[in-house]
Task: inverse folding
């Protein structure tokens, strides 16, 4: 089952989930990508908005009910949203071995990405493996510094020896891009643990829409494609 979380509140770019992006509502790109996956049996949209729900249904998603208000706040936990979606599906007699959380703010994540990510998770050897999509970052980010509030002095946030920082010895650096999260649905407790697999995506496909400039860039790329 693919779960698409789409609450109505958005401060960086108001109503971004339903803004028209390259010819259709932003959320529709994710619904279409998930619906075309050979491994996704159901696309459930979790939303507190009737207008988002209507758009989601128009593009073929299942919206069994509107999300409760306590799960649609700025500080609401996405893990609680996923657990609620799993519980709601089960209350309708639907059960799934795997779940995928696909945020609508990643319109350049496509069906091929979803399928390849799922195949990687299925090939994993342990029952508690999860998967998170990431993009490669500049390894120099390992040199990131913090500033002590009391002394005002700098210190290494990663605990590196900054007296002799050699770039070639830095570990490879990845950043979660928000496009794909996968786990087994049984006893689901989150997507990050000591057995979290990376699904590496390129920078363009990793665009995550928070602000207007992100939206404009994604629209431009999708329009050209």
Result:
């Amino acid at each position: 089952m693919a779960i698409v979380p789409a609450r109505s509140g958005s401060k960086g770019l108001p109503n971004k989930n339903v803004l028209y992006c390259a010819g259709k509502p932003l959320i529709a790109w994710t619904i279409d990508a998930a619906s075309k996956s050979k491994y996704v049996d159901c696309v459930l949209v979790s939303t507190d908005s009737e207008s988002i729900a209507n758009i989601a249904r128009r593009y073929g998603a299942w919206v069994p009910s509107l999300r409760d208000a306590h799960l649609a706040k700025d500080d609401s936990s996405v893990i609680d949203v996923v657990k609620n979606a799993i519980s709601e599906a089960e209350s309708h007699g639907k059960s799934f071995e795997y779940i995928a959380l696909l945020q609508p703010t990643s319109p350049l994540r496509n069906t091929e990405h979803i399928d390849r990510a799922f195949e990687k998770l299925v090939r994993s050897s342990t029952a508690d493996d999860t998967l998170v999509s990431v993009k490669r970052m500049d390894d120099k980010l390992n040199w990131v510094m913090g500033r002590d509030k009391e002394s005002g002095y700098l210190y290494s946030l990663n605990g590196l020896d900054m007296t002799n920082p050699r770039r070639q010895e830095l570990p490879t650096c990845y950043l979660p891009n928000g496009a794909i999260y996968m786990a087994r649905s049984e006893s689901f407790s989150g997507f990050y643990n000591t057995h979290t697999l990376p699904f590496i995506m390129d920078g363009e496909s990793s665009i995550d829409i928070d602000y207007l400039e992100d939206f404009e860039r994604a629209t431009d790329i999708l329009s050209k494609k």
Remarks:
- Residues 2-137+177-224 form a domain with the Spore Coat Polysaccharide Biosynthesis Protein SpsA; Chain A fold (CATH 3.90.550.10).
- The chain has a mean pLDDT of 93.
- DSSP finds five helices and ten strands in the chain.
- Strands lie at 2-5, 20-21, 24-25, 43-46, 98-101, 130-137, 145-147, 154-156, 173-184, 196-201.
